[in-house]
C-alpha cells in the first residue's frame, strides 16, 4: 500500500463569520499570530510527509491564493507541488474535493480545513495518516464537544476500540453511524467531526457518481460526510480518531481572537509541530 502523500485543502468559504477580517482577504489567508491560517496547514502537511497539496478556492479569491502560492510556497521545501483549483459554485465540501479529483490518482488522500487548528506534540495530520496505514480504512478526526453544540457539527455514533499503538495520538473508534448537524435529542453522541479526513479512491468515485445524479444544485448539495455514510451503508469499516491535543476553532471572531492569543503563547514556549 502506497503511503499518503497528497492533501486537499478546501478553502472556498466566504468567511462571513470572520468579518470584518475577511472583507479584503479570504479566511484562510487571515493572519493568526503573524502567519496566514493556511501556512499552519502547510507546516502540518510538510511535517507529516505530504509532498503534493491541492488548494480549492472560490473564484473571487483566486488572485489572493495565486499570490500566496507565489510568495509562500518556497517556505515549505518538502512540498513539491501546490495546485490551485477553483470551485465555481458553493456546492459543498464534497464537491470542493472533487475539483482536485484528477490530481489525486488511485491512492488514499488526506483532507484538512484550515480553520480547525490542532496543537499537538505530533502533527495531527500525521496521526491520521498513521492510523490509516494501520487500518487501511477511511478515518475521521473527532472531538467531544458540549452537547449543546452538537447541532453545529457532523456527529458520529461510535464504539471505542482499544489499541496501544495509537494511544498517544488519541482514542480509536469504530464508526457505526454519522448524522449531519442533528438536534440534541437525535444526536447519537457528542463526538464531532472536526476538519480532518482520510478518504479512499472508492469514496472519491462515489462522490463523483453522486454529483452526476444530483437533482438539487443548491448550496452544500454534496457534503463530504455523504462519502463516509455510503461506506457505512455498504457495510465497510470507517474509523474515527479522537485526538490528543487542543483544537482551536478559528471560524468565528471570538474563536479566532482566542486562538491568536493561545498560539502566540504556544510559540513563545518554542513548541514544535504547529
Task: Please name the defining characteristics of this protein.
274 residues, alpha/beta, Spore Coat Polysaccharide Biosynthesis Protein SpsA, Chain A, two-stranded antiparallel sheet, 13 strands, 30% helix
Describe this structure in words.
The protein is an alpha/beta fold and 274 residues long. The protein has a single domain (6-268), classed as Alpha-Beta Complex (Spore Coat Polysaccharide Biosynthesis Protein SpsA, Chain A). It is built from 8 helices and 13 strands. The protein has helices at residues 37-47, 62-72, 93-98, 101-104, 124-135, 201-212, 225-233, 253-268, and strands at 6-10, 31-32, 35-36, 52-57, 81-86, 109-112, 116-119, 139-144, 154-161, 170-180, 191-199, 239-243, 246-249. The strands form 3 sheets. A 5-stranded mixed beta barrel has the order 8-11-9-10-12. Strands 2-3 form a two-stranded antiparallel ribbon. Strand 9 (154-161) and strand 10 (170-180) form a beta hairpin. The longest helix has 16 residues, at 253-268.
Average per-residue pLDDT, rounded, comes to 89
CATH superfamily: Spore Coat Polysaccharide Biosynthesis Protein SpsA, Chain A
Strand/helix succession:
EEEHEHEHHEEHEEEEHHEEH
Q: How is the quaternary structure best described?
A: single chain
Beta content = 25-35%
CATH top level class name: Alpha Beta
What structural class results from the helix and strand content? Answer: alpha/beta
Q: How many DSSP H or I helices? A: 8
Number of separate domains: 1
Output the strand order for the largest sheet. Answer: 8-11-9-10-12
Amino acid at each position: 500500500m502506497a503511503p499518503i502523500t497528497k492533501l486537499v485543502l478546501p478553502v472556498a468559504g466566504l468567511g462571513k463569520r470572520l468579518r470584518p477580517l475577511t472583507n479584503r482577504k479570504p479566511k484562510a489567508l487571515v493572519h493568526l499570530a503573524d502567519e496566514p491560517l493556511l501556512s499552519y496547514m502547510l507546516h502540518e502537511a510538510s511535517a507529516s510527509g505530504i509532498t503534493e497539496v491541492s488548494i480549492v478556492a472560490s473564484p473571487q479569491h483566486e488572485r489572493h491564493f495565486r499570490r500566496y502560492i507565489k510568495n509562500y510556497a518556497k517556505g515549505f521545501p518538502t512540498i513539491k507541488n501546490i495546485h490551485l483549483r477553483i470551485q465555481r459554485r458553493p456546492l459543498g465540501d464534497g464537491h470542493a474535493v472533487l475539483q482536485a479529483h484528477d490530481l489525486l490518482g488511485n491512492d488514499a488522500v488526506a483532507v484538512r480545513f484550515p480553520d480547525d487548528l490542532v496543537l499537538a506534540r505530533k502533527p495531527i495530520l500525521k496521526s491520521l495518516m498513521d492510523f490509516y496505514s494501520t487500518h487501511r480504512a477511511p478515518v475521521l478526526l473527532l472531538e467531544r464537544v458540549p452537547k449543546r453544540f452538537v447541532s453545529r457539527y457532523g456527529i458520529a455514533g461510535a464504539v471505542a476500540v482499544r489499541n496501544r499503538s495509537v494511544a498517544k495520538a488519541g482514542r480509536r473508534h469504530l464508526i457505526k453511524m454519522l448524522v449531519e448537524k442533528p438536534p440534541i435529542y437525535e444526536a447519537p453522541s457528542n463526538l464531532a467531526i472536526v476538519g480532518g479526513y482520510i478518504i479512499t479512491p472508492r469514496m472519491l468515485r462515489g462522490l463523483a457518481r453522486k454529483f452526476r445524479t444530483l437533482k438539487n444544485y443548491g448550496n452544500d448539495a454534496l457534503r463530504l460526510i455523504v462519502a463516509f455514510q455510503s461506506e457505512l451503508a455498504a457495510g465497510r469499516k470507517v474509523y474515527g480518531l479522537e485526538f490528543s491535543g487542543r483544537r482551536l476553532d478559528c471560524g468565528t471572531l471570538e474563536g479566532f481572537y482566542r486562538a491568536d492569543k493561545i498560539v502566540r503563547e504556544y510559540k513563545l514556549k518554542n513548541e514544535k509541530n504547529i
